[in-house]
Structures are given as structure tokens and as C-alpha cells.
């Protein structure tokens, strides 16, 4: 009987200790709720830092011409972004193709303008692939103005749904 009492007291004590902990600190990662890793490897030395976007959300979509699924998602997402209020979402379509000529020809074939599309420098792809775990497959992320990932694996339908809730 005494053992049960002691065990109960210890469990109640642990419960109170865990409920009184301070706010958790956000960590960098690729899951919703994590802070998105900064992107420093775009062509022309462009850096994408998701913080201080003045209330705007950022959509980051990774793709490559050789990956049909990611390429099709890219086209659909960019058309969906063009239908939205430009003050609401800024898009970065990031290609991991190894040749600049393939990147530009793909944009022409898919009838996409080059303004929101970027090519990652070949020597910096390893760092970006590791940060966003792109070896598992290409993905897309919706990020708020504080740099926190709001949604991953974003489709045009999911984008519209998330933005309606906000």
C-alpha cells in the first residue's frame, strides 16, 4: 500500500513539474511549426530569409525538370499564386536542375515567367538538399512572416484552404 502511495505522489509531482515549464523555443526544421532553414544558394547570390515579410506568407516549392511530379506541381502552384492577391503570398520556385539551359527551356515549355523561379548553383545543392531533406523527394512549404512553416507538401487546393483559415 505504501509503494502505491509513493508512486502516486511521484507521478502527481512529475505532472505538476511538466505543466509548469516555460514556452518551448522553436527549432529549425522542415515540419510545420519549425523555423524554415534560410536559403543562401540561389543564383546571383540571392538569399531567401523568411522573416520580416511584412505580414506576407512565402511559398517555397522545390522541383526539377527530371521529376515529372514536382514539375507538374510547380506549374499548378505558380498558376494558383497568380490568381491570389500579390500582397498575401510571395512565391519562390526553386529548381535543382544541374544545367541552366534545361532550367530555362523547362520554364519556356511550361509557360512560366522567370520572376519567381530560381536555379540553385550546382556546388550549393548538397547543402540545400540536406537542410530541406530533399533526397526523400521534392516538397513545398508555406512559411509565415516570422519564418515558421505553416504547411508542408502544399498543393494549390491546400494553399487556398490554409489562406482561408488565416
Which CATH class? Alpha Beta
String of helices and strands: HEHEHEHEEH
What is the rounded Rg?
A: 21 Å
Largest sheet: 5 strands, mixed
User: Architecture in CATH?
Assistant: 3-Layer(aba) Sandwich
By secondary-structure content and strand pairing, the structural class works out as alpha/beta
Low-confidence stretches: none
Number of strands: 5
Q: Tally the structural domains.
A: 1
In CATH, the homologous superfamily goes by the name Glutaredoxin
CATH fold-type name? Glutaredoxin
Shape: elongated
Helix fraction, binned, reads 25-40%
Describe the protein in words.
The chain has 166 residues and is an alpha/beta fold. It has a single domain, classed as Glutaredoxin. It contains five helices and five strands. Strands 3-2-1-4-5 form a five-stranded mixed sheet. The longest helix has 18 residues, at 2-19. It is elongated, with a radius of gyration of 21 Å. The mean pLDDT is 85.
Amino acid at each position: 500500500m505504501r509503494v502505491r502511495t509513493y508512486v502516486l505522489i511521484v507521478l502527481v509531482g512529475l505532472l505538476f513539474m511538466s505543466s509548469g515549464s516555460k514556452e518551448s523555443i522553436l527549432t529549425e526544421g522542415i515540419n510545420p511549426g519549425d523555423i524554415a532553414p534560410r536559403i543562401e544558394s540561389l543564383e546571383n547570390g540571392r538569399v531567401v530569409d523568411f522573416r520580416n515579410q511584412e505580414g506576407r506568407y512565402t511559398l517555397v516549392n522545390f522541383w526539377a525538370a527530371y521529376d515529372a511530379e514536382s514539375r507538374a506541381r510547380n506549374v499548378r502552384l505558380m498558376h494558383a499564386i497568380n490568381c491570389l492577391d500579390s500582397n498575401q503570398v510571395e512565391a519562390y520556385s526553386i529548381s535543382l536542375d544541374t544545367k541552366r539551359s534545361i532550367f530555362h527551356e523547362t520554364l519556356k515549355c511550361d509557360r512560366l515567367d522567370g520572376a519567381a523561379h530560381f536555379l540553385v548553383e550546382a556546388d550549393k545543392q548538397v547543402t540545400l538538399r540536406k537542410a530541406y531533406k530533399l533526397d526523400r523527394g521534392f516538397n513545398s512549404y508555406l512559411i509565415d512572416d516570422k519564418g515558421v512553416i505553416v504547411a508542408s507538401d502544399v498543393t494549390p487546393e491546400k494553399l487556398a484552404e490554409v489562406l482561408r483559415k488565416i
